[in-house]
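Discussion board: Methods & Data

I've been asked by a reviewer to show the raw model output for two of the constructs in my manuscript, not just the figures. I'm not sure how much to include, so I'm pasting the format here to get opinions. Each protein appears as its amino acid sequence followed by a line of discrete structure tokens. Is this the kind of thing reviewers expect to see in a supplement, or should I convert it first? Here is construct A:
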Amino acid sequence: MATRLPPIFTLLCVIFVSVLLGSAAKSKSSTGDSVLVILEPEKRAEYSIFLNGLEAKGYSVTLRAPKDEQPLLIEDGLPNFSHVAFFASDTKNFAKDITPQSLVQLLSLGTNLILTLGPKQNLLTSLAPEFSLLLPPPATPLVSFFPERADSPSVIPINAKSSSTPNDTFSVLTPGVGSVWFSGTPFALTPNPLLFPILRAPAESFAADLSDASGLVSDALVDASEKGGEGLWAGSSLAVVAGFQTLIGGGTGHGLDAGPGEDKQARVVWVGGPSLFSDEFANKKVVEKVKEERGLKVVENPSGNKQAALDIAGWAFQERGVLRIDSVSHRKVNQTGTPETYTTNDEIVYTVKISSYNAFSGKWVPYSDIKDLQLEFTMLDPHVRTALPAVRGQAGTYSTTFRAPDRHGVFRFVINHKRKGFTHLLYTTTVPVVPPRHDGYPRFLSAAWPYYAGAISTSVGFLVFCALYLAGEAKEDKRSKKE
């Protein structure tokens, strides 16, 4: 007869399983779960879908009005929040602790930011050029008259699939996300290696102020090209969402040479307008015309704003694209321990283990998908630069073998991997390379055989000469005696 478990034990098991499944479904950041949203409290209902989505993923969301003094961004030199989102794009005056300098300080302390621009000039528009963003003249939103729709020309559906990204850029948006509604200010990106576009403007769009135009496309284009004397801001060269990845520790690097302390990298996402995160655009349908045998059919599809907003926040809050170096080792070929010094022309084996953060499990897992990892062996300039390929059968392990240069001095192993969308990997280790000891050279050098042959031939010639000379004197002595 089967034994029946006590009710209290069954209840505890149910609670444990529920907590376990609930924690597994949540996706958290690798740097912290506290989020401060700068937003007028009465406007919270306009962004409830996005904010509730963050809370469902396990974030602790705190609201603060732009002019409130509490809670502070930085207190006693430490940030109070892991992430800060600015949705008060229409506000011109902020509290005294919200300044461009304080935002830059937050980045240096490892706090991630989401910054949304607005039509009015404020501290964010003055801060944008510091991140290599070029803004159009004030009050010139992005407009497009295509595709034909009943909405205002400044409310634009952007096909995320057609937003081209470089091959080395991490894909922030989930593949297959629907069209994203956008209304706001576009910006151009300068060739900064730390900056990359997440969502580009449509090719047929341009920045213009339609309030002064007669309503015709031609008039709007002329007004846009003449405004500010800066030409026409148009096309897919503009972006509406861009990501910025800071350097490690302000560019100082890390590894055995960096000393104690945790490496901190922060991310910034610039968005042309807060409406991308709004409930209005999340619930707004996208009307598309689909070709069929009988003609065009009008189809209403849900927008991709809800998913795109969470994807953008997920990258900004370091849920995805987060890499780290777990361990590094170097040794001589056919040896196991790490030597204190290397000798010129030694065969060296260098191995590194890299992992990636999994937001769903909250754990670091081995990562073997880096195809272009490189190692440099430098002394002022790189003497050796070689690929670090992944080792088959060993997840997250990269290894290479190379020969030390025929030059002694203080060298460094350097891994400096920077790819857009991923956290930067920088690791340096200093090792001395010494010449061989007096008994470390081979007894005979193959390259010196010409000198050996010359010395031997000279010696042999001298001995032959001596023998012939002495033999000649002996013969002369015998002749003199006979005479």
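Construct B, same format:
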Amino acid sequence: MSGANSNGTTHNNGGNHVSTKRTSTPGKAAVLALGKAFPDNLLLQEQLVEGYFGDTKCEDATMKEKLERLCKTTTVKTRYTVMSKELLTKYPDLAKEGSPTIKLRLEIANQAVLDMATKASLACIADWGRPAAHITHVVYVSSSEIRFPGGDLHLSARLGLNKNVGRVTLYLLGCHGGVAGLRVAKDIAENNKGSRVLLVTSETTVLGYRPPNPSRPYDLVGAALFGDGAAAVVVGADPIEETEFGFLELSHAEQWFVPGTEEVVEGRLTEEGICFRLGRDLPEKIEENIEGFCRSLMEGVVEEGFDGLFWVVHPGGPAILNGVERRLGLGLGKLEWSRRALRDYGNVSSNTVFYVMDYMREEMRKGGGGEEWGMVLAFGPGITFEGCEGLCLMKNAVSELRCGHKKHSRHM
């Protein structure tokens, strides 16, 4: 684990060059630690088409050709999934069209989501370096679990958290759930002095797995793009010197919805599981609205414009990233953390933004990057935009020379 005290002293326990630390703003929430977890089954994109059509016993050559094209355009190389040949052998109805398997799917998903959430939380708490008993609040995010009491309670019990831990559950938010959770965690941390919030996201595609069907072409997009996993972060204000090492301060958070787009992304719970619909105009709608949203989120904080910021963007897909890059005029490599997360994990719904954030932290620890201010963004059903304006608390000599961003009065 690496970090630095408030005076900027460098700490390096990992053997790599580590950037020094900017002084955090009193009372402002920051991400203090991060952990992630995945199921055991690794899916290689190059093997997906034959495996998927074989497992579902589908012989539709046209659908197969479409999926082959999609697998190339998504840029995904590897993903992790709960669904496996062993699971399909044990429960063959999961791969049959029209099978009323929602009860079975929920039993599998609820357990898998909790298991991954537990592993991610333990990894995050180890990264944090303080006892789990010091967690005061839990924010639990999932679009893959439906039950009560929810995973927030089961997770708190597994981790041995105090019985008076404050719990908030955010269900069925889709891909913007991770940043929505950050917004909630930020509010809790900044309004409860000394609090430490464990934000956990966990997702699986088990609820939506079904055989190819010409009447549901968007199912192929899901098959080519989505993966499973979990993530966790600890959020708190006023890091304890020499004990906690925040790396991303959450300066301001905002949420928008785009009127008239309620049906562009939607999911319906049926006897077969969750049926998703992804409109082809989703990337276009995001591109049309991203500049206005970012300008509202920035509100005059920086002078250099969008390309002078760092970008932690949920990689909903390459078309979405390309649209964001084009509309904001971002330079080559500005969305590399997002593209790398998409390549390595696929779109893992609410979790994915934290995998992007982890790549950001990794580069900053090695002395890369250097941008002081930046954006954490995600997009989901609604269409909903979620964003946090962030201050990177790690810096290096390069950042001192090229970052001259000025603070808006709301940060003082």
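Answer (T.O., handling editor elsewhere):
This is acceptable in a supplement if you add a one-line summary per construct. For B, something like: The chain has a mean pLDDT of 90.
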